[in-house]
Amino acid sequence: MINEILLIAFLTTFIVFIIFLVKRISLYKLKIDLMSLVVHEFKEASKGGVGYMHFSISAGIVLSVLLAIFHYLYPLAFALWIISIPIMAGLAAAAAYRVGVFIRSGIIHRRLGEGRDFVAESNKMQLILLFIILLTLTDILFSIFATWLSLAIGTVRNALLAAFYVKPAANLIVNYKREITHFKTPFRLEDVIEGRLKPEEVKFGYEKIADVDKEVVLSCQSCGEIGACDANCPAVAAGRLLSPRVVVRTVALNSNNPNYELALKLEPQVWACTTCGMCVYSCPVKVNHLDVIYGVRRALVAQSRVDKKVADVLMSVSQYNNTMSMPNSGRHDWLRDLGVKLIGENPEAEYLLWVGCMGSFDGRTREIVKAFVEILKKANMLEKIAVLGDEETCCGDPVRRIGEESRFQEIVLANKEIFEKYGVKKLITICPHGYNVFKNEYPNFGVKLEVYHHTHILQQLVEEGRIAITPGDRLMTIHDPCYLARYNKVVDPQRRILIRLGQLKEPPRRGEKTFCCGAGGGNYWYDVPEEKRISHIRFEELAATGARTIVTLCPFCNAMLSDAKRTKESPVEVKDIAEVVVERLL
């Protein structure tokens, strides 16, 4: 009799959780594909680490429900229990992980100077999650040995789920497909220009909680203090004044106070962010921390509350049309000396080579472009490319990441006219930031291009035999740029090239899980207080592989790691992949 009563209590509390979950999901007003969600969760579990631990929690809850329903069919219950053994191992690992997160969170809270109320709420949520994990583990563990105890424990767990874990579960179910490349456009400048939107109706950023978009608030409220964002954040590792977890929890805990001064509270944290995207990539429940970072930055820029160096970059783009504070006139004259024609001189060119601000003006980056051009010349492709010359300006990525949305959209519309003027359909860039903005953000403004990183072109030339290369025995390692590997999943081309040129030794953090160089999000142009430079952390990790050459795929990564090399007086070389290839040309 006691088992029947406890089963009713168990199922009742679980149904309450499901009802609350459905109601929460309805707030998003989005369609759900449950089968696709299940496939996604298995893929996340296969990655190991936090992905498997979170999968163990979800799977553990499902298994505990099945064990409760079929407890009277012992053979079936026993089979389910055997199946759940690896899940119980994952739950045990998750519990141990939670203890580490709790300790690390305390250190971060003290570093940021968080108030007593915030810390209390944070600790409460973390302890509840730990309790849910432990209850799920013991529920499954005792399910075939002491049914009444298992049902009692499961009932308490279900009640906690209904009270505290509806929001994280709903956000995962709704947003699991959202790509890290998704950038929330706050307004459209064309609507203002054409009179569809009044200038006074434009909302520039998140100055107060009332300014935060509803879907962003829902996302922030879904944070379960899992801590994967902090664990993988380069800014946290470097001792900067940033915690992605604290950023979203600040929004969540003050979401009922429309006048809360969000920008004032988060100002130091948002400028410490490199926008590497590891927080969003790592979050098991798909909270998007970057929406808040960008929203607050836009508010600060609109109020001119920016560092002098940030203001200088924005002024440079406004005055010179580039980020380097250099007159734009003649930016590609040196390329013409290499045989590269302007697009007006070569209108039949298949590709526009977007050189970029760094490639046009920075001496070190010019060497990378020269190497790439030499490879194209060797492959008889020089007539297939052209450059814009003085008509090339900033791609807009730095100003958008910094928070100057209006200027970004002005740049996009200007470049759109130029692309249409010359009929540009295909574009090559050496910069992952340019690659990302052209590929994923320009289309939102009606610009459709086939976008290639120079690594794609190099891979094609090598594998098609259009350039002859000689293999060597040099030991190399790859630094994957965040905006290439994590944002755009370009991981294989560089490896398929380098294994033909020498030996490759991978660092622990690589591919989509790469570690930031420290330059992203505009950080290249201004200083951020930190205990240890992000670039130095990364350089040490790469050098520890024993490689003689660190291969980069981004001018900013190259600059940051080269600076770390000089500071540490290391014999390890830092070279772009084009430079490595050109050295092995026959």
TrEMBL record:
Listed transmembrane segments: 6-22, 52-74, 80-107, 127-151
Pfam families: CCG, Fer4_8
GO-annotated molecular function: 4 iron, 4 sulfur cluster binding; metal ion binding; oxidoreductase activity
Keyword entries, A-Z: 4Fe-4S, Iron, Iron-sulfur, Membrane, Metal-binding, Oxidoreductase, Transmembrane, Transmembrane helix
4Fe-4S ferredoxin-type domain sequence ranges: 262-293
InterPro entries per UniProt: 4Fe4S_Fe-S-bd, 4Fe4S_Fe_S_CS, Cys_rich_dom, HdrC_iron-sulfur_subunit, Helical_ferredxn
One cellular-component annotation, GO: plasma membrane
Gene3D superfamilies per UniProt: Alpha-helical ferredoxin (1.10.1060.10)
Family in the record: Belongs to the HdrC family.
Name of this chain's protein: (Fe-S)-binding protein
Organism from which the protein derives: Pyrobaculum aerophilum
